[in-house]
Design a protein that fits this description.
Rossmann fold, 6-stranded parallel sheet, 7-stranded parallel sheet, Arc Repressor Mutant, subunit A, alpha/beta, 17 strands
Length: 731
């Protein structure tokens, strides 16, 4: 197998069938064959893998490739085996193998068959593996995804920082470190940790001219995503979400809307993940909805779009994930949905971590916010972040972003910025953004009264604008360095030296006019995967919504308290005309049916008669598997005033599962009293404030409530209060 007598170009043709190298590949390979260390920074799709695969095939011994993900190793090993007649040419060694498989891998290495051994850093630190590798010939060590070494990198893995001494113990061989994303700070950290200060660094351009970058406000994101995928039918795409729960919800919603999609996250077992990955590679499914666990090193050249449902924690993550689009040089659309509140949640997760980690995390998030809110060329912004200059007029890929193609309308905001900074000063730089926005708008909240802010000259000084506007000004002031957020006292606004100078001598401060995505055409998008089985009768649905509005007005309640929208959709699908049938509708129990059902049944009955509608002979009865026992268990234990965590533990459930169940019980019209639990968590004034919010809100949506309260309450606290509210008001 060894072909040291071949030149790299001849070996390239022999093993991979290519005539030409890309970029610096040939120089990097010569450098490694000469026994020198190398540090390679090359964007996704640039051909990093070849820089260590080819020299491994050309030399005696086995090259160790340190790789962070099992899925990535499998993908790469399969690819190499595809170029060779011997399966033993490449192996991986990780926790997914049994004893017999490990023995076979080691035998192939001893026999000289294996040229590339992929290992996880955790496997490399095991004593028995170190001893074995010391006994065989190692050609060199490649460290893939090397940004994992750096605390400033987006996928920091502590095990990666222990690699240098382990490699030295195994063999004195060259090291090649490779990454697709590295800012100058990350680059320096990697080289320092691996003792590669003198190593030759090869840095390819980070510009991917075929990628189109776009950031949209996060309004009706699910509807926008469905509409986008439908208009790009048959194309492959990846959608990234930050939580496993959102991944599963979104994948289910896409499936309900006729899109071939699957969820993928680290909570699934490895066989399931491998199967979904293979289905995506084989084009059996079009769309993967994933956490960041998906995609590292996945060699699918024709991914046509990458959508970020949530902005990631750093620009490195964003760049790497968008880099999975258009690797064949063809179309690659990168759309991100941006809500500042999402990033505030990420800021909140930093609380309680060591100060150094908090500061790194905050700085990385500020860069993401700046990117999302910039009005300059996004390509220029990204490349500058990676230490590369870009000519946004004549550079390759110049008009390929939303800001360049559709420049945002701007207006002078100097006076607003000055007013904001003076308000922060007035209240001794002791408050978060929400408080300052409430002061300027004139919101008479409990916190405002506590600090007597309603008596200040700044109270309602900016009431010609709403809270959303003032929060945007706050963000722009943070992005431009006039304000900073105190990490320790999560979110407290402090004025910087630049901010003080700005108050003394105000300069031009341009604000961006936001685009509006509230009126995304619904077409026939089903946003809830729980909607009825048939097609919704739109005319009846509209009539039911109007009736709900009227009933709500008469009873002085928010419309969603009467019946939630999915319930109305189901009524407009299944046409219930009796009380029994109405209770078969999702979210409608006996109590709610009796309390509000009468006028709705009358309307449906009349509509069915007037339009000669043939109803199904028997309405679909939803099966609820073994849930009645759980319902009784929950209600009985709430009556005994047991903590909800104990109720959950007794049934092997999480608190979130129990809240789901209680919400279903309450939505169906049964009263539950969890005041004993809430009173220990939330003070009386806050309860009153949240209760008032739900009474006046257009919907009971928790993310909307979270946004309204600017992160002052957790989602679980808001859910508990929504249960209390619905139980007391709706049932």
């Amino acid at each position: 197998m060894t072909t040291t007598d071949l030149s790299p170009r001849q070996a390239l043709k022999k093993f991979f069938g290519f005539d030409q190298f890309k970029g610096d590949q040939e120089t990097i390979i010569h450098n490694l064959l000469d026994g020198n260390d190398a540090f390679v920074i090359m964007p996704t799709g640039g051909g990093k893998s070849l820089c260590y695969q080819l020299p491994a095939l050309m030399q005696d011994g086995t090259a160790i490739v340190v790789s962070p993900l099992i899925a990535l190793m499998k993908n790469q090993v399969d690819a190499i085996r595809g170029f060779s007649q011997q399966d033993g040419v490449a192996h991986f060694l990780n926790s997914s193998l049994n004893k017999g498989e490990i023995t076979r891998v080691k035998q192939d290495i001893v026999d000289g068959n294996t040229k590339l051994l992929y290992v996880a850093p955790e496997s490399l630190t095991k004593e028995e593996n170190i001893e074995f590798l010391k006994s065989v010939k190692i050609s060199f060590v490649a460290i893939d995804e090397a940004h994992c070494i750096s605390e400033w990198g987006h996928d920091f893995r502590p095990e990666y920082r222990r690699l240098k001494p382990i490699i030295e113990e195994i063999a004195d061989v060259p090291i090649i470190a490779l990454t697709a994303t590295a800012t100058p700070k990350v680059q320096s950290d990697i080289q320092k940790n691996l003792g590669m200060k003198d190593a030759k660094a090869y840095k390819a351009s980070f510009n991917r001219p075929n990628l189109y970058y776009e950031v949209r406000p996060k309004k009706n994101a699910t509807k926008q995503i469905i509409k986008y995928i439908r208009s790009n039918a048959g194309k492959s795409g990846i959608i990234y979400c930050l939580s496993r729960k959102k991944v599963e919800e979104l994948a289910e919603t896409l499936q309900v809307n006729g899109i071939q999609a699957a969820a993928y996250h680290a909570g699934m077992d490895s066989n399931q993940r491998s199967r979904i990955q293979d289905m995506f590679l084989m084009q059996e499914i079009d769309v993967i909805v994933a956490t960041i666990a998906f995609g590292m090193g996945i060699d699918k050249p024709d991914v046509r779009f990458v959508i970020h449902h949530d902005m990631p924690k750093s620009l490195e993550s964003y760049y790497q994930e968008t880099g999975r689009a258009g690797r064949d040089g063809g179309e690659g659309n990168c759309i991100a949905f941006y809500s500042y509140k999402d990033l505030e949640k990420l800021e909140k997760f930093l609380q309680g971590k060591p100060i150094a980690e908090q500061e790194i995390g905050m700085q990385l998030l500020q860069e993401v916010i700046a990117y999302a809110e910039t009005s300059m060329s996004r390509r220029k912004f990204l490349l500058h972040y990676f230490g590369e200059e870009f000519d946004e007029v004549n550079g390759l890929g110049a008009p390929m972003d939303d800001n360049t193609r559709f420049p945002k309308e701007k207006y002078e905001g100097q006076d607003y910025a000055v007013t904001l900074l003076k308000t922060v000063l007035e209240f001794k730089q002791m408050h978060k953004g929400k408080f300052i926005a409430d002061v300027l708008v004139g919101n008479d909240t409990a916190e405002i009264k506590t600090y007597k802010a309603n008596e200040s000259e700044f109270f309602a000084l900016g009431n010609e604008k709403d809270s959303r506007f003032w929060n945007a000004v706050i963000r722009q002031c943070v992005v431009h360095g006039l304000l900073r957020k105190e990490v320790e006292t999560y979110g407290t606004l402090k004025i910087t030296e630049d901010g003080e100078s700005f108050i003394e001598e105000p300069k031009s401060f341009l604000l961006i006019k936001e685009m509006d995505y509230t009126d995304v055409d619904d077409e026939d998008v089903v946003v809830s995967a729980k909607a009825g089985g048939g097609a919704t009768d739109q005319a009846l649905f509209d009539m039911l919504k109007d009736l709900r509005k009227k009933v709500a007005r008469d009873k002085q309640l928010p419309p969603y308290v009467i019946f939630q929208e999915p319930s109305l959709e189901e009524m407009a699908t299944n046409y219930p005309i009796s009380l029994d049938e109405l209770t078969q509708i999702g979210g409608v129990g006996v109590g709610k049916a009796k309390k509000f059902g009468g006028p709705f049944l009358d309307l449906i009955k009349k509509y069915v008669e007037d339009n000669d509608i043939e109803r199904p002979d028997d309405m679909l009865v939803k099966s609820v598997v073994n849930k009645s026992g759980l319902k009784v268990h929950i209600i009985q234990n709430i009556d005994r005033k047991l903590p909800l965590e104990d109720i959950a533990d007794a049934k092997g459930k999480s608190l979130e599962d129990i809240l789901d169940e209680i919400e279903a019980i309450v939505s169906s019209g049964t009263k539950v009293n969890i005041n004993y639990y809430i009173d220990d968590l939330i003070d009386e004034d806050s309860q009153e404030e949240i209760f008032d919010y739900f009474m006046s809100a257009d919907s009971a949506d928790i993310p909307e409530a979270y946004e309204e309260f600017d992160g002052d309450f957790t989602e679980d606290e808001l859910r508990l209060m929504r249960i209390k509210f619905l139980s007391e008001v709706a049932n």
